[in-house]
Amino acid sequence: MEEDVLTTLKILIIGESGVGKSSLLLRFTEDSFNPDQSLTIGVDFKTKKLSIDGNTVRLAIWDTAGQERFRTLTPSYYRDAQGAILVYDVTSQATFSKLETWLSELDTYSTKSNIVKMVVGNKIDKAGREISREEGMKFARRHATLFIESSAKTKDGVQCAFEELVQKIIQTPGLWESTNGGKTFQVSDGPAEPSSCGGWQCTI
Amino acid sequence: MSDDLPSTYDVIILGTGMVESIVAAAVARTGKKVLHLDPNTYYGQLWATLSLDSFELWAKTGTSNTKTLKGEDSFKSLSDKALKYYETQDERDCISDLTFNWNIVEDIPESEEEPKEENASGNEYSIKKIRDVSRKFNIDLAPKLLFAKGPMVEILIKSQVSKYVEFLNVNNILIYIDDAIERVPCSKSDVFSSKSVNVVDKRLLMKVLTSIQSYTEESPFFQEYENKTFLDYLKANLPEKFANFILYSIAAGDQNTPCLEGVQKAKKFLSCLGYYGNSPFLWPLYGSSELLQGFCRQCAVFSGIYCLNREVEAIAVEGDKYYGCASNGILLQSEHLVVSNSLLPQQFRGTGPSVKRAVLITDKSIFPEGKEGVSLLQYPTDDSAATILELSGNTCSVPKGLFIVQIVGNCLEEAIKNLFSEGGDDSKPKILYSLRFTLHQMECTGKLPENIHACPGPDFATDFDAEIRKAEEIFKKICPEEEFFAPLPPEPEPPSDEPDSPEEATNDA
Ligand SMILES: Nc1nc2c(ncn2[C@@H]2O[C@H](COP(=O)(O)OP(=O)(O)O)[C@@H](O)[C@H]2O)c(=O)[nH]1
Ligand SMILES: [Mg+2]
Questions:
Q1: B190 neighbors B277 (Cβ within 8 angstroms)
Q2: Which residues, listed in sequence order, are joined to residue B390 by a DSSP beta bridge?
Q3: Would you tell me how many other CB atoms lie within 10 Å of the CB of residue B211?
Q4: Distance of CA B371 to the CA centre of its chain
């Protein structure tokens, strides 16, 4: 890991299908927007560096990969996330009503009890608003989450949403420091030979 | 459940077991349209990893097969075609003789919770207190290890599913011998530094391990043992204690293991040392089912559709070919069906071998002088061996201070009696909770239509080698032209950021 990066944070984006989760992710990480839904399929996670108050962090932002459609996200999706963005569509009451379920899903599966949550009302560019800004804010206050309204289409609020979330995470003590003493690892194309004389191939 | 499921697919996969999930990812990567269903509300079937609450619920529903057959006529209205319907069965038939019990008090009244009892082992726990942290448990129904250079690790890397899973080393390789638990020296440095092995024995041990490590098919070294057991060879070259170390812990064999088979298994173990620390085995943080969840996620990234808590009541066959699945009053159609053996219709399902299993929650490690983490203990008896896996708090499978013990083997009662206490004996770990059951393997016995592919449930091996082989075999039948987990084309470069911002966007962490 580069020296200037403080840490890598895992951020989740959850909410009903079609509210614009993948679009927000792509707008933020690649500054792109596609009105065709099918093009947001195939997003796994994206990483992006972000500097806040003089600290640089790397964000790994995880898409649902469409597994939210029948509420079948894997528990492993939620593991070790420091931040979660809960998205609804301001033009759809149904997606707003489902936020309660998403919050309880998050409480069930997130492994960090102090995970930072942000409620995002998306698609404010679109005609036919059903949820007012006040209603959204009230919900967020009641559940002690951050709140913002956005449009992945016009970029409104997108950068801000991620910045506020990350700022809050960094300010939360004990949330992002490594917990397992660095003893865990991932498997990768390592050396073809054992790296230490723990093995039998090397001659002593 | 809303039925906006599309009705046709290339492949429908029924069951989210290990083999099924690997196949799901593999075929989705080739561009095939996949629907992956599971009758349970959780991933993994008999491979699942469950919180304590879910685990207790699983135990309580136990062996009760809730399935009632509806009769073929109830499906006739689904299609005009002349289809024959075979009703699926319940995976619960794989479990029998299930018992469980708590060995601690229900609750401790506030006033009694005084610190003076602290040293009385087990006394500070109550059922309520442990259930309160149910989510801190990740209990495996089928725990298995990964060889550091085995096929599962290879596929994880090739598929890039590796980015979803973190691992720990299995850092204590142990054996129960002469009424005590001993650490097995595995690597050269282990043998050198071992204080319990004298210089003469060290030299003998070195010699045997080195000749096993350098064994090849052409190697004449073991030829004289061709018709003998591995133990015959080991005993001829080593004191009995070390012969047992190698036979049980390194080769995972028994008295009857033929010499060449033992040599090959021991060699595999030895050749896995040194890649990820001084242990041949890896254990996934949060439990075995992280692996299959990773494969399912990859299938979803490649547009696979996931639906849990969704039953397929019957499999429809047209002539000698599979046609589709009857589910929730609709017919879902696909070219291929991949299905767990355990769910197969009775015409095609038979019961195979079985093994005894136990899961314990304890208050102390079986080997407190070892490193914190994952311990693997072989417990040989006169006629068979039990394999014991112990997980401590840093595996994220159990709250700190407690231990999960997984035991496989028909002699497990003897192992439990000698290694653990039900109370009273403070020198041994106390059993706070225990669950025992017999796990039966289901087999495909009838002749299935050739576009149905049946997947085995958990076997009794410690590793995933057989599962990977089976998944590849099924993949080849569905995609004969394709490479199993062919590398993906690199992600296109994202549009470059404004030069003054310190931002980047890539897809691999
Ligand atoms: N007008 C408008 N459309 C949006 C916005 N965000 C997403 N969409 C569209 O909504 C549809 C669903 O978006 P997607 O990102 O796939 O939603 P997801 O299912 O939550 O990932 C797509 O057609 C997007 O183009 C937005 O802010 N404004
Ligand atoms: Mg999406």
A1: no
A2: B375, B405
A3: 16
A4: 23
Is the CB–ligand 1 distance for residue A157 below 6 Å? no
Model's pTM, two decimal places? 0.93
Measure CA of the first residue to CA of the last residue in chain A; give whole Å: 32
What tens digit of pLDDT does each residue of A43-101 get?
899 999 999 988 899 999 999 999 999 989 999 999 999 999 999 999 999 999 999 99
Residue B180 is predicted with a pLDDT of 94
**Inter-axis angle of helices B289-301 and B18-29, nearest 10:** 20
CA distances for B129 relative to B51, B52, B176, B395, B434, angstroms: 15, 12, 32, 20, 16
**Helix-helix angle B151-159:B465-478, to 10 degrees:** 50
DSSP B201-218: HHHHHHHHHHHHHT--TT
pLDDT for res B508: 44
CA-nearest residue, atom 24 of ligand 1: A35
Q: Which tokens sit at B293?
A: 């969840």
A144: left (phi over 0), alpha (psi -120 to 50) or beta: left
Q: Is the pLDDT of residue B214 over 50?
A: yes
The minimal CB distance from A65 to the residues B297, B310, B494 is found for: B297
Q: With residue B436 as reference, give the H or E element that holds it.
A: strand B431-444
Asked if residue A200 has pLDDT above 60, the reply is: no
CA–CA separation, B339 and B454 (whole Å): 5
Residue B383, judged by CB atoms within 10 A of its CB (0-12, 13-18, 19+), counts as exposed
Mutation to test the A interface, candidates B157, B275, B286, B308, most A Cβ within 10 Å: B275
How many other CB atoms are found less than 10 A from the CB of residue A35?
Answer: 7
The Cα B415–Cα B407 span in angstroms is: 9
Residue B11 in contact with residue B27, Cβ under 8 Å? Answer: yes
| Helix/strand/coil percent split, chain A, to 5 | 30, 20, 50
Q: Identify the bridge partners of residue A48 per DSSP, sorted by sequence position.
A: A59
- Assign A2 a pLDDT band (cuts: 50, 70, 90): low
pLDDT in tens, B134-189: 999 999 999 999 999 999 999 999 999 999 999 999 999 999 999 999 999 888 88
Helix/strand/coil for B508: coil
Rounded to whole angstroms, how far apart are CA atoms B372 and B78?
A: 57
Q: Mean pLDDT over all residues of chain B? A: 90
Average pLDDT, chain A: 89
Asked if B43 and B491 touch (Cβ cutoff 8 Å), the reply is no
CB B387 within 8 A of CB B374: no
% of chain B at pLDDT higher than 90: 77
pLDDT digits (tens, 9 = 90+) for B472-483: 999 999 999 999
What region, left, alpha or beta, does residue A190 occupy, with left being phi > 0 and alpha being psi -120 to 50 degrees? beta
B319-329 in b/e burial notation, b at 16+ Cβ within 10 A? eeebbbbbbee
CA-CA distance, A126 to A154, in Å (whole number)?
Answer: 10
A144 Cα to the center of ligand 2, angstroms: 26
Please, where are the H alpha helices in B42-176?
52-61, 127-131, 151-159
What is the residue with the minimal CA distance to atom 28 of ligand 1?
A123
**Is this prediction's ipTM beyond 0.90?**
yes
Rounded to whole angstroms, the Cα distance separating B330 from A191 reads 52
Q: Is A56 on the interface with B (CB under 8 A)?
A: yes
**Residue B91 clears pLDDT 50, i.e. is over it:** yes
Strands (E), A126-176: 146-149
Asked if residues A9 and A167 have their Cβ atoms less than 8 Å apart, the reply is no
SS3 B190: helix
Q: What is the CA radius of gyration of chain B?
A: 25
Give the Cα-Cα-Cα angle B94, B99, B100 (nearest 5 degrees). Answer: 125
pLDDT at A180: 59
